[in-house]
Write a structure and sequence with these properties.
This protein is an alpha+beta fold and about 190 residues long. It is built from three helices and 15 strands. It is globular, with a radius of gyration of 18 Å.
Length: about 190
Amino acid sequence: MKNIFLMLLFCIVYQKGIAQQYIPTIKNNSQLHYVCKLHGQTRSLQLTAETAADKLAFKLETRGVKSKIVMLPEAVQNGTELSFNQGEYAPVLNLKPTETFFMISRSAYQNLIKNSSFVYNNTTYALDEKNAESVQIDGKTTDALHVKAQIDETEMWIVKNPDFPLICKITNNPLGINPTLVKVVD
């Protein structure tokens, strides 16, 4: 009887342990490693976060291209557009006050939580809990929200982090840019 009780206790503790899901965070100098499918090509992309009280920037490195993408505080808070810039046009690129990069704004995230949808780039994205496949980052199951565009086949997985709602995966993007976050180094 004692062995059965211990085995049952072990199973419960084990199940609780594996049920914990990974939520990546952004700190100063956090490195985000993505694999991007770009128009049929595969390319690795590394973003290194630079956090400051007034803005968030990502140092971008991919295939010899190095750039710094700067998001304004108003975009991080209330942005409504996703920039797909690949950093090739300037060593430092300051995005518009409405643009975010590899994340949605905090207000869009709050709309997603409250209303099960948000609008970005004039497209409504609705929460899809029925067909949500899990996303693995560095072998860890990530706690992410799965959304689908209402006008095309685009799907996104957004990390459940209200401060930095990172996009950890995009599929079926009509622009042909489909990134997947594969590793986070703090």
